[in-house]
Fold:
Amino acid sequence: MQTAKTKVKSMSVSFQSDIFMRINSYCAERGCSRSWFINKAAETFLAECLEDKADYETAVEAWAEYEKSGFKSYSADEVFKEAGL
Structure:
């Protein structure tokens, strides 16, 4: 939801005609604007991309740590024991 203090920026976006028609139909059925729909879609997709980026960075750090350890690994039993499970 936008508040009075939210700054809005405009941009032009081009869609393949079939996607445009599907968006148009959905928005008409739902009673929402294309702008609202595209903003929600972009917000959702961006959140997924940022989560994927964070997961990738965590994996890179974990791999570097694994390499520094001399490729030391632990069995599931060792992990559970260390965690007190």
